[in-house]
Amino acid sequence: MAVDPLTQVYDATWALLAAGADFAGAVPEGNRITFTGHARDPEKINVQDADFPEVRLQPLGGEYGPIRDTGGRSWIERYQITLCTGDRRVDLRLYPVRWAIVRALVDWETTLKALTWEGDSFVLNSEHQSADVGTSEVDIKRGVEGWASVATLEVTMWFPHANLRGS
Predict the structure, then answer these.
(1) How far are the Cα atoms of 54, 89, 108 from residue 139, in angstroms, in the given order?
(2) Do residues 154 and 77 lie in contact, with contact meaning Cβ atoms separated by under 8 Å?
(3) Is 132 helix (H, G, I), strand (E, B) or coil?
(4) For the range 57-62, what are the long-range contacts, defined as Cβ-Cβ under 8 Å and sequence gap of 24 or more?
(5) pTM value?
(6) Average pLDDT along the chain
(7) Mean pLDDT for the stretch of residues 22-33
(8) What's the topology of domain 5-165?
């Protein structure tokens, strides 16, 4: 069975991040929290310093776009990239990892525009939007002191009506 377009985009975004040399060097693989694969609940409850920095790619939902023409529909999916530093020094994990994320996502066109559904490429645009910094309620509950950075990523897709209907 073919992997649905939303999962493809999610996995490809993680591949983009992991392919970034700065990101790969700064965020150990075990600290990249992904919500696909085998783990039903991948988030760590009990954490130690080695568990940081931690990066989560979380789905925020999407919206079915307006019909731009009679040939298809757009879909806008949003993701939240959450960085938990586990440290209050901005120069140790916060800024270096945020910068690594920005750099890794620059090549989105090469990766995301190569994705196909029913034989057609479907990603039109990927935009790294706002990036807020502060503390995270999730991290406070886990007893973690440090910064949290929450960035929004918006991916715009377009599908011909024939591909939406299926075969």
Answers:
(1) 11, 16, 29
(2) yes
(3) strand
(4) 57/10, 57/13, 57/14, 57/17, 57/33, 57/81, 58/82, 59/6, 59/10, 59/35, 60/152, 62/6
(5) 0.89
(6) 89
(7) 96
(8) STM4215-like (3.30.2000)
The phi and psi torsions of 52 (rounded to 5 degrees) equal: -125, 150
- Whole-number Å distance between alpha carbons of 10 and 79: 8
Which tokens hold the place of 109? 């066109």
Task: Provide Rg for the chain, Cα atoms.
Answer: 17
For the chain, domain boundaries: 5-165
Instruction: Specify the pLDDT at position 153.
Output: 96
State the sign of the Cα–Cα–Cα–Cα dihedral 154, 155, 161, 163.
Answer: negative
**Which residue did the predictor score with more confidence, 137 or 114?**
114
pLDDT in tens, 55-106: 999 999 999 876 666 788 999 999 999 999 988 899 999 999 999 999 999 9
Per-residue pLDDT band for 38 (boundaries 50, 70, 90) equals confident
State both tokens at 113: 């525009």
Closest CA to 20 of 158, 128, 122, 115: 128
- Closest C-alpha to 55, from 128, 139, 111, 137: 139
> What six digits make up the tokens of 127?
């935009």
